[in-house]
Amino acid sequence: MTDLHLAAESGSVDIIKLLLDKGMSVNLTNTHGFTPLHISAGFGNLEATKTLIHRGAALNNVNKCGDTPLTLASRRGHLEICRFLTEISADITIRNA
């Protein structure tokens, strides 16, 4: 897991901004295809999720398990993140098989 993924997991917005400012890709995937947005949404970190989106994170990326950030947030009960993602046009038709 990269430093950006760890910052997304812990909700460390300042570290996310620093890493992105230093050139790290906002859509960097780990070995399982998780982007930092998958991680922040799945762990319920709303401010980190918003920061990643505002910095250009791909909203509907599907990881190797077939999950989008929205499906992860939904499965884990993070309703505020689900609301935010759907308000900014996350694709609600993508289903994990």
Give an overview in words:
By secondary structure, the protein is mainly alpha-helical. It has a single domain, classed as Alpha Horseshoe (Serine Threonine Protein Phosphatase 5, Tetratricopeptide repeat). It is built from six helices and no strands. Helix 3 packs antiparallel against helix 4 and helix 3 runs parallel beside helix 5. The termini are far apart.
- What's the total helix number? 6
Report the count of strand segments: 0
Tally the structural domains: 1
Instruction: Give the topology string: H per helix, E per strand.
Output: HHHHHH
Q: Sum up the overall morphology in one term.
A: globular
The termini sit apart by 25 Å
Helix content bin: 40-55%
Topology diagram in text:
Blueprint: H1 3-10, H2 13-21, H3 36-42, H4 46-54, H5 69-75, H6 79-87
Helix pairs in contact: 1-2, 1-3, 3-4, 3-5, 5-6
What keyword list fits this structure?
97 residues, 6 helices, mainly alpha, single chain, Serine Threonine Protein Phosphatase 5, Tetratricopeptide repeat
Question: Can you give me a brief rundown of this structure?
Answer:
The chain is mainly α and 97 residues long. It is built from 6 helices and no strands.
